[in-house]
Structure prediction request, 1149 residues.
Amino acid sequence: MQAQSMQRTLLSLVLRLLLLCMVATGKCSGKYHELLLQLQRQADLMQNPSTLLDPYIHLQGLHSPILKGSCMERLGDFPSEDVLWRLSRQDFLWTLNTTLGLFLRMLSALQQDLPKAAQQQAEMNIRGLGNNIHCMAQLLRGSSDPEAAEPTRPGPGPTPPPPSLPMLPLDTFKRKLRICEFLQGYHRFMRRAGQVLRGWGERQGRNRRHSPLRGLQRAAQRTWPFPGLRRLAPQGQLPR
Amino acid sequence: MVFEIQISRFKASDVIWTGNYSTTVTQNQVLHWSWESELPLECAIHFVRMRTMVDDARIPVPRFWSNWSSWKKADAQNSLGDHPLYVFPKDKLVEEGSDVTICYISRNHQDNISCYLEDVLTFGKQLDQSVWAFELKNISFLRKTGTNFYCQGQGVPEGVVLFVSKVLEEPKNFSCETRDLKTLTCTWDPGDDTGLIQLPSYTLFESFSRKKTLCKHRNRCDWQVTQDSQEMYNFTLVAENYFRKRSVSILFNLIHGVHPVAPYNLFPKNVSATNATMTWKVHSIGNNSALLCQLQLLGEGKVIQQHNISIRVNGEYLLSELEPDTEYMARVRCAYADHFWKWSELISQNFTTAEAAPSEAPDVWRDVMFVSGHPTVTLFWKPLSKVHTHGKILFYNVVVENLDEASSLEVLSVPAPANSTKVTLNQSSYQIHVTAHNSVGPSPASTVAISGHPGNENVEEGRINGTEDGFPMSWKPQSRNATGYVVEWCDGPQNLPCVLQWKNLGPTTTGTVISSGAFRPGVRYNFRIYEISTKRMAHLLEKKTGYLEELAPSYNPQVVPNNLTSHSFTLSWKDYPTESQTGFIQGYYVYLKSKAGEKCHRGFEKTVLPDNSVCCKYTIDNPDQKTFVMKDLQPESVYEFFVTPYTSAGEGPMDDFRKVTTPDEYSHILIHIILPMIFCVLVIMIACYLKSQWLKDKCYPDIPDPYKSSVLSLIKSKENPHITIMNVNDCVPDAIEVVNKPEGSKIQFTGTRKSPTETKGTKPAYLDLLPTEKNYSGPGPCICFENFTYNQAASDLGYCGHFPVTSQAPHCPLGPLTSPENLLKTLEQNYMNSLGEIPAGEANLNYVSQLASPVSGDKESPPTNPPEPALCSEYKMQMAIPLGLASPPPSENSSLSSTTLLDPGEHYH
Prediction:
C-alpha cells in the first residue's frame, strides 16, 4: 500500500512538474501523441479513488461496507460513457474541461468536508489536466485532420449540456453520502475519460495504415458497440 | 404561581414526566417553559397538560390546584415525508460521556432493519409498532466530522451524525500584563480542543468597570486601558460552549504588570582595545516612565560583566576592562523601574575590541648542537596565548647579540605561525632575544644565552617512574644564583622526530611533575633538567629517563645459536636494542626444552608454560648480557630454546621454540684427521703442478726442431750450399711401407693415454712413405714416425684410403688419400663405424705419420724397421680436429701428414 501510495505521489509529482513546466514556458507541446499520452496518464491518476474518495471516506467515517456500498455514482452528476464516446474530440475536450471546472468549484465548496491535502492535490491535478486539454484543443484546432471533428465512436446528438452542481442536503448524514456519491462519480468519470482518450490513440494507430478519408468513412460505418443505445445520428451526416 | 406539568408519550394516559414550575407572574404575561425529551420528539407523539396553584405567602392556606388543562398534542411526525425510514435526532450535539437516545421510524413494517453505531451492530428497544429506540451510553469522541449512526432496511441506509464534543476545560494560567500602560493583554491556556468545528467562545469581563469584551483568540485577549487612571482590574474570563461555561478570575494591578517591549538599536560606539560604549533605545511607557535596563557583556558565551542602568528613552554605557582583539557580545533588556515585574526580551550585538601589542614575551627555549665545533642553535617558542597576543601575531623577531663583539647584532624575522628557527653561531658567547609582533607592536623580549662551547654533557642519567599525573622529578640545585630551571623532553617516542617540549620553573623550585597529553604507556621519555644562570645561560643539571607506565616487551630478540658442540652451544642476541623497548629491560629468561625431558641443568628451574608444557627456565638478571652458553648438553640430542626479555611489567610474548641438535661426540675428531689429510693432498698437488715442467722435461721432452738443430750450423759452417734440410712438400712419396707388427710385439707408448690392455687387440701400423720409383729425383726418402696420438677408432677402418699395405700388394693410388673428399669420407666413415666391427686380420692404415729427421734422435721412433736415413725429413705440426667434424678442405700443398685426429680436448705435441 505504501509503495503504491509512493508511486502515485511520484507520478503526481511528475505530472505536476510537467504542468508547471508548460505553464512556466507558456508553450504547448506540439506533439500529439505526447500530449495524448499525458492526458491519458493524468486521467488514469485522477480516476484512482485513493486520490480523493478514499481520504474523504476515511475522514467522514464512511468506511463500513454498508456505507461504502451505498456510495455509488449518481446518474447525471457526470457525463455518461456513451455520451463521451459519441463526442467529437473537440467536444470531448470541451465537455471534459467544463465538467472538471464545475468539479473544481465543488471542491472549493467542500473544503470543510474534505481532507485538505487530498483536496489540494485534486485541485492541482485538475488544473494540470485542464492545461493539457487546452493544449490538445489548440493542437486539434490547428490540424487539418477531419478526425478532430469526428466522434470517437459515431453516435447521435450534439454536445450535452454540462452537468450542474449537486444540491447538498442539510442533513449531515445525507450530505456525507451525497458528497461520497459525487466523488465516486468524479473518479468514474475520469476513468471513462481515460478510456476515450485511449480510444483516440488506438484509432490513430489504426488509421495510420489507411487514408484519413477512408478511416473517416469506415468510422461512420463502424458497428455501434452498445446495442442498447440507439444511434441517433442522421444518415449521411457526419457528427461533429 | 406554581404550575404542575404532566407529559405523556404515544398516549395521553402514559404519563412519563410530572414536574412543577414556579414563577412570579404578572397580568397578561406569557410564560415560557421548556422540557427536553431524551427521545427525539419526531419518533413519538407527546401530550402535555398542566394545572396551577397560587404560591404566595400573603394568601392564606389552604390553597387549591386548578383543574388540569386539556392535553395538548405535540406531533412532529406530521412534518415527515413519505420515506420508508427515518432516523432521529438529526445532527445532535452531545458532550463526551453523556447518553444519547436515537430512534427510527419505519413506514414499512415488513422491513428487517439493522442499525449500526459506526461499524457495530446496535440493538434497540421497540417503542411502538413502527418506532425503535437505541440508548447509547457514555458516548465518546471519535472525530471532528461526527459519529455515524445508521440503519438499513431495503433501500439506501438512513442515519444521523452525532457531533460529540469533548468536555470544555477551565482556562489555566490566566494572567494579564501591559507593555505600554495603554493596552492590557490577558493570556491563558485553553486546554484541549473540544473537537468540534464550533469553537468555544471566550469572554473577558472586568467587574470594576463592568465592561466585557469577546476575545478574538482562544488563548489571548486584549483590553484597552482607559484614561481614567484605573489601576486595579478584576478580570473574569468566561469560556463557554454549547454544554458548559467555565470561568476564572484575577485581580490585576496595572502597575504591577508592566512588561516592557524589548529595547532596540543596540550599537557599540568608540570601540578601543579595552573600552567600548554601548548605546540603545527603548519604547516609552506611559508618560516616559523610567526603565531599568540591564546591560550584559558576554565573552565566549559567558556573562563577564553586568550593569544596571536607569534610563527613560536612550541608554548609553561605557564598558571598560575589555581585552584587546576580543570578540564580545553585549545584550540588553529592560524592566519597568517603578515596579519590577518582568524583563523585556533581550536584544544583542557583537563587537570586537581593537588590537594592542602583545603583553607577554614568548616562551623561548633552545636546542644546541655543535657541528664542527660551531654551535647550531635551534630556537623554539610557544605561541602566545590569546590572552596575551592582543591581535594576530604577524612575525617573530630574533636578535642575535654576540657578547664578545659589542657591535655584532644579527636580526632575523620569522613569519608567523612558525615556532622555531635555526641559527649557526661561532664559538663566542651570545644572547638571543625573541619578540612577537602584531600589527600594533612587539611583545616584551625573551632572552636565552648561548655559550660558544659545549657544556658538561657527562651527567649521569637517573630513572624515574611515571604516575597518573605525569613524571614527578626533583633535582639538586648546583648554584645559589640560578634564575630558574627548565625541564626539556621530547613528546614522542624515541624513533620519531623529536617534538621538543620544555617547562620553565622558578628559581626556588627543585621539583615538578611533567605531564602531557602526549605521554603514552610503554614509551621511554628522556628528560633533561637545566639550571638557568643569571646570564640566562643553561647548564645541564640532570638527566632522567622513564616510562609513564612500563609494559612487557612487545617482541623478543632474534637469537642466533652458535659454537655448537656435542655438549654446548651459545645463544646470542646482540642486536636486541634495550633502549627502545616498552619498559626497562631487567634481564632475560632463557627457556630450554629437551626431548629427553631430563632434569633441568644447573641454574635452570622448572616452569610451566601457558600451554601447560614443562620446560626449564634460566633467568639472566643483567640486561646487558646478550649471550648465553648452554652447557652440559647431551651429544646427538635435540634441544629447544627460547629467549625473552622481561621488564617490571612482565616478560615478552611467547614465541616458538627454536630447535638445536647437538652433534656426535666424535665428529670433531674426524674433522681433525680429515682436514689435515686434505691439506696434505692439496700441497702435493700444488707441488706437482709447480714441478710439472720439470717432469715434462724428464718424461716427455719436446721433439727438437731440425731447423734449429746444431747440426745445421755445423753443416753451414762447412759452406756446403747443397746441403739443406729437406722440405717434406718437396718429397714425392713413391712407396708406402707398411710394417705389420705381430701381435704381442713391443709397443712403445707415447703417453699414458692408452693402457697396454686397451691397445692389446689393435694392430698398429707403420706407414712409410718411400719413393716408388728408383729414379725418383726428389730430395730423398722421408722417415716416418709412428704417432700414437691418432684416433684409435679410425685405425680400425678398412677403407681404400686406409688400406693394408704390403710390399707385394698392388699400389693403391694415392688419390683416395690425397683427395680431401676421400679423406673426409674416411673420417666420417671412421667416426660412424667407430663402434662397428672390424674384419679380423685386416691391417689398417690410419695415419700418415709425422716425418722426422733421423738425426733428431727421437727415442719414440718405432722399434721395427727403421727407415733408412734420408736427406730429406720433416716434422710437421699436427692439427687437432675434433671428432665428427669435417676437416677443412686441404689445399693443394697440404699433405696428408699434416692432418691428425685428436680426441676432443686433448692436445699432444
